[in-house]
Amino acid sequence: MxxxxxxxxxxxxxxxxxxxxxxxxxxxxxxxxxAITLLPWGLLTRKRTTGHPAFFGKLxxxxxxxxxxxxxxxxxxxxxxxxxxxxxxxxxEQLFGETTAKSIEEFLLLRDGYQNPKNKEFNSIDWSLxxxxxxxxxxxxxxxxxxxxxxxxxxxxxxVDVTVSSVERSLRITxxxxxxxxxxxxxxxxxxxxxDLIILPGGHTGSExxxxxxxxxxxxxxxxxxxxxxxxTNSSSTVLHKHGLLxxxxxxxxxxxSDEPMNQQMxxxxxxxxxxxxxxxxxxxxxTKFSLAxxxxxxxxARARSVSEGLVHEYPRQ
Length: 318
Ligand SMILES: *[C@@H]1O[C@H](CO)[C@@H](O)[C@H](O)[C@H]1NC(C)=O
Ligand SMILES: *[C@@H]1O[C@H](CO)[C@@H](O)[C@H](O)[C@H]1NC(C)=O
Description:
By secondary structure, the chain is α/β, with parallel strands linked by helices. Helix content is 37%, strand content 19%. An 8-stranded mixed beta sheet has the order 4-14-15-11-10-5-6-9, with helices on both faces. It has a 3-stranded mixed beta sheet with strand order 1-3-2. The chain has a two-stranded antiparallel ribbon with strand order 7-8.
Protein backbone atom coordinates (compact mmCIF):
# COMPACT_ATOMS: atom_id res chain seq x y z
CA MET A 1 0.00 0.00 0.00
CA UNK A 2 2.59 2.69 0.89
CA UNK A 3 4.46 1.55 -2.24
CA UNK A 4 1.54 2.35 -4.55
CA UNK A 5 1.12 5.77 -2.88
CA UNK A 6 4.81 6.56 -3.30
CA UNK A 7 4.68 5.54 -6.96
CA UNK A 8 1.67 7.86 -7.40
CA UNK A 9 3.63 10.76 -5.89
CA UNK A 10 6.59 10.34 -8.26
CA UNK A 11 6.15 12.99 -10.97
CA UNK A 12 8.81 11.55 -13.26
CA UNK A 13 7.08 8.18 -13.23
CA UNK A 14 3.73 9.85 -13.88
CA UNK A 15 5.19 11.51 -17.00
CA UNK A 16 6.71 8.23 -18.22
CA UNK A 17 3.43 6.35 -17.74
CA UNK A 18 1.32 9.06 -19.41
CA UNK A 19 3.66 9.11 -22.40
CA UNK A 20 3.50 5.32 -22.52
CA UNK A 21 -0.31 5.44 -22.68
CA UNK A 22 -0.40 8.30 -25.24
CA UNK A 23 2.00 6.40 -27.50
CA UNK A 24 -0.26 3.37 -27.19
CA UNK A 25 2.49 1.17 -25.76
CA UNK A 26 1.76 -1.49 -23.14
CA UNK A 27 1.41 -0.53 -19.49
CA UNK A 28 0.18 -2.47 -16.50
CA UNK A 29 -0.53 -2.42 -12.78
CA UNK A 30 -1.28 -5.04 -10.13
CA UNK A 31 -2.80 -5.25 -6.65
CA UNK A 32 -3.44 -1.75 -5.21
CA UNK A 33 -1.63 0.11 -8.00
CA UNK A 34 -4.58 0.31 -10.45
CA ALA A 35 -6.77 2.14 -7.90
CA ILE A 36 -4.08 4.01 -5.95
CA THR A 37 -1.57 4.91 -8.67
CA LEU A 38 -3.14 4.78 -12.16
CA LEU A 39 -6.61 6.10 -11.29
CA PRO A 40 -5.50 9.54 -10.00
CA TRP A 41 -3.26 9.87 -13.08
CA GLY A 42 -6.32 9.42 -15.29
CA LEU A 43 -4.89 6.27 -16.86
CA LEU A 44 -7.92 4.05 -16.21
CA THR A 45 -10.36 6.18 -18.23
CA ARG A 46 -12.64 4.01 -20.37
CA LYS A 47 -10.57 0.92 -19.48
CA ARG A 48 -11.89 -2.31 -18.02
CA THR A 49 -9.86 -2.82 -14.84
CA THR A 50 -9.30 -5.28 -12.02
CA GLY A 51 -7.28 -4.92 -8.81
CA HIS A 52 -6.86 -6.08 -5.22
CA PRO A 53 -10.23 -7.02 -3.66
CA ALA A 54 -9.62 -4.67 -0.70
CA PHE A 55 -9.39 -1.71 -3.12
CA PHE A 56 -11.95 -2.88 -5.63
CA GLY A 57 -14.52 -0.37 -4.40
CA LYS A 58 -12.23 2.50 -5.40
CA LEU A 59 -12.19 1.52 -9.09
CA UNK A 60 -14.69 3.23 -11.42
CA UNK A 61 -17.75 1.01 -10.91
CA UNK A 62 -18.93 0.62 -14.48
CA UNK A 63 -15.49 -0.47 -15.70
CA UNK A 64 -14.39 -2.66 -12.78
CA UNK A 65 -14.23 -6.44 -13.42
CA UNK A 66 -13.61 -9.18 -10.87
CA UNK A 67 -11.10 -11.17 -12.93
CA UNK A 68 -7.54 -12.24 -12.11
CA UNK A 69 -6.25 -10.59 -15.29
CA UNK A 70 -7.90 -7.87 -17.33
CA UNK A 71 -6.55 -6.67 -20.66
CA UNK A 72 -8.09 -3.48 -22.00
CA UNK A 73 -6.25 -2.09 -25.03
CA UNK A 74 -2.72 -1.27 -23.90
CA UNK A 75 -3.56 -1.64 -20.20
CA UNK A 76 -3.25 -4.93 -18.29
CA UNK A 77 -4.31 -5.10 -14.62
CA UNK A 78 -4.27 -7.93 -12.08
CA UNK A 79 -5.45 -8.67 -8.55
CA UNK A 80 -2.50 -9.31 -6.22
CA UNK A 81 0.61 -11.28 -5.31
CA UNK A 82 -1.22 -14.58 -5.85
CA UNK A 83 -1.95 -13.66 -9.48
CA UNK A 84 1.44 -12.14 -10.30
CA UNK A 85 2.61 -15.20 -12.28
CA UNK A 86 -0.51 -15.03 -14.44
CA UNK A 87 0.00 -11.28 -14.82
CA UNK A 88 3.61 -11.73 -15.94
CA UNK A 89 2.61 -14.52 -18.34
CA UNK A 90 -0.09 -12.33 -19.85
CA UNK A 91 2.48 -9.59 -20.51
CA UNK A 92 4.88 -12.16 -22.00
CA GLU A 93 2.09 -13.34 -24.29
CA GLN A 94 1.26 -9.80 -25.43
CA LEU A 95 4.94 -9.05 -26.08
CA PHE A 96 6.17 -12.33 -27.56
CA GLY A 97 3.11 -14.33 -28.53
CA GLU A 98 1.28 -17.35 -27.24
CA THR A 99 3.97 -19.95 -27.97
CA THR A 100 6.58 -18.20 -25.86
CA ALA A 101 4.14 -17.61 -23.01
CA LYS A 102 3.06 -21.25 -23.07
CA SER A 103 6.61 -22.54 -22.92
CA ILE A 104 7.43 -20.26 -19.96
CA GLU A 105 4.27 -21.39 -18.25
CA GLU A 106 5.11 -25.04 -18.70
CA PHE A 107 8.65 -24.54 -17.49
CA LEU A 108 7.79 -22.44 -14.46
CA LEU A 109 4.52 -23.46 -13.10
CA LEU A 110 1.93 -25.68 -14.42
CA ARG A 111 3.60 -28.72 -15.85
CA ASP A 112 1.11 -31.54 -16.19
CA GLY A 113 0.57 -33.59 -13.12
CA TYR A 114 2.05 -31.11 -10.67
CA GLN A 115 -1.27 -29.50 -9.85
CA ASN A 116 -3.01 -32.72 -8.92
CA PRO A 117 -1.15 -34.17 -5.95
CA LYS A 118 -1.40 -31.77 -3.03
CA ASN A 119 0.21 -31.66 0.37
CA LYS A 120 1.22 -34.92 2.04
CA GLU A 121 2.08 -35.28 5.70
CA PHE A 122 3.72 -38.22 7.47
CA ASN A 123 4.61 -38.78 11.14
CA SER A 124 2.65 -35.67 12.04
CA ILE A 125 3.96 -33.73 15.03
CA ASP A 126 2.83 -30.44 16.58
CA TRP A 127 4.83 -27.42 15.33
CA SER A 128 3.07 -24.77 17.42
CA LEU A 129 5.24 -22.69 19.77
CA UNK A 130 4.68 -20.58 22.87
CA UNK A 131 6.64 -17.66 21.39
CA UNK A 132 6.94 -15.84 18.05
CA UNK A 133 8.53 -18.37 15.70
CA UNK A 134 12.01 -17.43 14.51
CA UNK A 135 12.92 -18.50 11.00
CA UNK A 136 16.28 -18.38 9.24
CA UNK A 137 16.39 -18.27 5.43
CA UNK A 138 20.01 -18.73 4.29
CA UNK A 139 20.72 -17.59 0.72
CA UNK A 140 23.65 -17.39 -1.70
CA UNK A 141 24.45 -15.94 -5.11
CA UNK A 142 22.34 -17.94 -7.53
CA UNK A 143 19.49 -18.62 -5.09
CA UNK A 144 16.04 -18.48 -6.70
CA UNK A 145 14.76 -14.94 -5.97
CA UNK A 146 11.06 -15.76 -6.24
CA UNK A 147 11.41 -18.60 -3.75
CA UNK A 148 13.34 -16.64 -1.17
CA UNK A 149 11.16 -13.53 -1.46
CA UNK A 150 7.90 -15.52 -1.40
CA UNK A 151 8.88 -17.54 1.67
CA UNK A 152 10.04 -14.43 3.58
CA UNK A 153 6.97 -12.44 2.51
CA UNK A 154 4.35 -15.06 3.39
CA UNK A 155 5.95 -15.84 6.77
CA UNK A 156 6.28 -12.14 7.65
CA UNK A 157 2.60 -11.59 6.78
CA UNK A 158 1.85 -14.39 9.26
CA UNK A 159 3.87 -12.50 11.94
CA VAL A 160 6.86 -14.83 11.95
CA ASP A 161 10.24 -13.32 12.88
CA VAL A 162 12.25 -13.90 9.67
CA THR A 163 16.01 -13.44 9.19
CA VAL A 164 17.34 -13.66 5.63
CA SER A 165 21.03 -14.41 5.82
CA SER A 166 23.80 -14.39 3.22
CA VAL A 167 26.43 -17.14 3.14
CA GLU A 168 28.42 -14.86 0.80
CA ARG A 169 30.97 -12.28 2.02
CA SER A 170 28.52 -9.43 1.44
CA LEU A 171 25.00 -8.71 2.62
CA ARG A 172 24.15 -8.12 -1.02
CA ILE A 173 23.63 -11.23 -3.11
CA THR A 174 22.99 -11.70 -6.81
CA UNK A 175 20.08 -14.08 -7.09
CA UNK A 176 19.37 -16.33 -10.07
CA UNK A 177 18.55 -14.20 -13.14
CA UNK A 178 20.67 -11.34 -11.77
CA UNK A 179 18.19 -9.86 -9.29
CA UNK A 180 20.08 -8.05 -6.49
CA UNK A 181 18.86 -8.69 -2.96
CA UNK A 182 20.02 -7.12 0.30
CA UNK A 183 19.91 -9.66 3.13
CA UNK A 184 19.52 -8.93 6.86
CA UNK A 185 22.70 -10.54 8.21
CA UNK A 186 25.80 -12.46 7.22
CA UNK A 187 25.58 -16.13 8.19
CA UNK A 188 28.32 -15.75 10.83
CA UNK A 189 26.27 -13.18 12.73
CA UNK A 190 23.02 -15.09 12.17
CA UNK A 191 24.65 -18.19 13.69
CA UNK A 192 24.88 -16.44 17.07
CA UNK A 193 21.15 -17.12 17.53
CA UNK A 194 19.13 -20.30 17.22
CA UNK A 195 16.01 -20.67 15.11
CA ASP A 196 12.78 -22.61 15.32
CA LEU A 197 12.95 -23.24 11.57
CA ILE A 198 15.67 -23.11 8.93
CA ILE A 199 14.40 -23.00 5.34
CA LEU A 200 16.65 -23.24 2.27
CA PRO A 201 15.29 -21.74 -0.97
CA GLY A 202 16.26 -23.43 -4.25
CA GLY A 203 18.10 -22.33 -7.37
CA HIS A 204 20.75 -24.68 -8.67
CA THR A 205 23.97 -22.64 -8.22
CA GLY A 206 22.60 -21.07 -5.05
CA SER A 207 22.09 -24.54 -3.55
CA GLU A 208 25.63 -25.55 -4.44
CA UNK A 209 26.94 -22.47 -2.67
CA UNK A 210 24.73 -23.06 0.38
CA UNK A 211 26.10 -26.56 0.58
CA UNK A 212 29.67 -25.25 0.82
CA UNK A 213 28.95 -23.07 3.86
CA UNK A 214 30.47 -24.73 6.94
CA UNK A 215 28.58 -22.42 9.29
CA UNK A 216 25.28 -23.34 7.68
CA UNK A 217 26.18 -27.02 7.81
CA UNK A 218 26.77 -26.72 11.55
CA UNK A 219 23.48 -24.82 12.07
CA UNK A 220 21.57 -27.47 10.13
CA UNK A 221 23.21 -30.30 12.10
CA UNK A 222 22.21 -28.63 15.37
CA UNK A 223 18.70 -28.13 14.04
CA UNK A 224 18.50 -31.85 13.26
CA UNK A 225 20.05 -33.01 16.53
CA UNK A 226 17.76 -30.87 18.68
CA UNK A 227 14.66 -32.00 16.77
CA UNK A 228 13.86 -28.50 15.50
CA UNK A 229 12.26 -27.86 12.13
CA UNK A 230 14.06 -27.50 8.80
CA UNK A 231 13.18 -27.66 5.14
CA UNK A 232 14.04 -26.82 1.56
CA THR A 233 12.54 -26.07 -1.81
CA ASN A 234 13.66 -27.35 -5.17
CA SER A 235 17.38 -28.12 -5.59
CA SER A 236 18.17 -27.28 -1.95
CA SER A 237 16.73 -30.62 -0.81
CA THR A 238 20.05 -31.92 -2.14
CA VAL A 239 21.88 -29.82 0.46
CA LEU A 240 19.91 -31.48 3.26
CA HIS A 241 20.47 -34.87 1.68
CA LYS A 242 24.23 -34.38 1.31
CA HIS A 243 24.53 -33.31 4.95
CA GLY A 244 22.75 -36.53 5.94
CA LEU A 245 19.66 -34.75 7.23
CA LEU A 246 17.01 -36.59 5.22
CA UNK A 247 17.60 -40.12 6.48
CA UNK A 248 14.26 -41.92 6.82
CA UNK A 249 12.50 -38.72 5.71
CA UNK A 250 10.01 -38.52 2.90
CA UNK A 251 10.50 -35.61 0.47
CA UNK A 252 9.03 -34.24 -2.76
CA UNK A 253 10.56 -34.97 -6.13
CA UNK A 254 9.74 -34.03 -9.71
CA UNK A 255 8.09 -36.97 -11.49
CA UNK A 256 10.67 -36.87 -14.30
CA UNK A 257 13.60 -37.21 -11.93
CA SER A 258 12.39 -40.30 -10.16
CA ASP A 259 14.67 -42.57 -12.23
CA GLU A 260 17.64 -41.70 -10.08
CA PRO A 261 16.25 -41.25 -6.60
CA MET A 262 18.26 -39.51 -3.88
CA ASN A 263 16.69 -41.85 -1.34
CA GLN A 264 13.91 -44.38 -1.17
CA GLN A 265 11.34 -42.05 0.26
CA MET A 266 10.48 -39.60 -2.45
CA UNK A 267 6.86 -38.70 -2.92
CA UNK A 268 6.63 -38.21 -6.64
CA UNK A 269 4.89 -35.05 -7.80
CA UNK A 270 3.49 -34.01 -4.40
CA UNK A 271 3.65 -30.22 -4.07
CA UNK A 272 4.56 -30.11 -0.40
CA UNK A 273 5.70 -33.01 1.79
CA UNK A 274 5.96 -32.79 5.57
CA UNK A 275 7.62 -35.64 7.45
CA UNK A 276 7.77 -34.90 11.18
CA UNK A 277 10.00 -31.86 11.49
CA UNK A 278 11.08 -31.73 7.82
CA UNK A 279 9.24 -29.93 5.02
CA UNK A 280 10.15 -29.94 1.31
CA UNK A 281 8.57 -28.60 -1.85
CA UNK A 282 9.16 -28.68 -5.61
CA UNK A 283 10.02 -25.05 -6.31
CA UNK A 284 8.76 -21.88 -7.94
CA UNK A 285 5.28 -23.10 -8.75
CA UNK A 286 4.62 -24.46 -5.28
CA UNK A 287 6.48 -22.03 -3.03
CA THR A 288 3.39 -20.13 -1.87
CA LYS A 289 1.70 -23.39 -0.89
CA PHE A 290 4.89 -24.44 0.86
CA SER A 291 5.00 -21.20 2.86
CA LEU A 292 1.29 -21.40 3.72
CA ALA A 293 1.80 -25.02 4.85
CA UNK A 294 4.44 -23.75 7.31
CA UNK A 295 2.05 -21.03 8.54
CA UNK A 296 -0.68 -23.61 8.96
CA UNK A 297 1.58 -25.97 10.95
CA UNK A 298 2.78 -23.13 13.20
CA UNK A 299 -0.51 -21.27 13.76
CA UNK A 300 -3.35 -23.35 12.28
CA UNK A 301 -5.46 -23.15 9.11
CA ALA A 302 -7.26 -19.92 10.03
CA ARG A 303 -4.04 -17.89 10.01
CA ALA A 304 -2.94 -19.50 6.73
CA ARG A 305 -6.31 -18.72 5.16
CA SER A 306 -6.24 -15.09 6.25
CA VAL A 307 -2.69 -14.65 4.88
CA SER A 308 -3.75 -16.26 1.59
CA GLU A 309 -6.66 -13.81 1.30
CA GLY A 310 -4.24 -10.88 1.47
CA LEU A 311 -2.21 -12.55 -1.26
CA VAL A 312 -5.31 -13.25 -3.37
CA HIS A 313 -4.13 -16.86 -3.40
CA GLU A 314 -6.72 -19.62 -3.40
CA TYR A 315 -6.45 -21.60 -0.17
CA PRO A 316 -8.29 -24.91 0.12
CA ARG A 317 -11.16 -25.16 2.63
CA GLN A 318 -10.31 -27.59 5.43
C1 LIG B 1 27.99 -12.47 -5.09
O1 LIG B 1 27.20 -11.32 -5.35
C2 LIG B 1 27.71 -10.15 -4.75
C3 LIG B 1 26.68 -9.04 -4.84
O2 LIG B 1 26.20 -8.82 -6.13
C4 LIG B 1 29.05 -9.80 -5.42
O3 LIG B 1 29.59 -8.62 -4.87
C5 LIG B 1 30.01 -10.97 -5.19
O4 LIG B 1 31.21 -10.75 -5.89
C6 LIG B 1 29.39 -12.29 -5.65
N1 LIG B 1 30.25 -13.37 -5.20
C7 LIG B 1 30.73 -14.29 -6.01
C8 LIG B 1 31.64 -15.27 -5.39
O5 LIG B 1 30.42 -14.34 -7.20
C1 LIG C 1 13.84 -27.12 -9.68
O1 LIG C 1 14.76 -28.16 -9.71
C2 LIG C 1 14.80 -28.99 -10.83
C3 LIG C 1 16.01 -29.87 -10.73
O2 LIG C 1 16.41 -30.12 -9.44
C4 LIG C 1 14.82 -28.24 -12.12
O3 LIG C 1 14.61 -29.11 -13.20
C5 LIG C 1 13.77 -27.15 -12.11
O4 LIG C 1 13.88 -26.41 -13.28
C6 LIG C 1 13.98 -26.29 -10.90
N1 LIG C 1 13.22 -25.07 -10.98
C7 LIG C 1 11.94 -24.84 -10.69
C8 LIG C 1 11.39 -23.60 -11.27
O5 LIG C 1 11.24 -25.51 -10.00
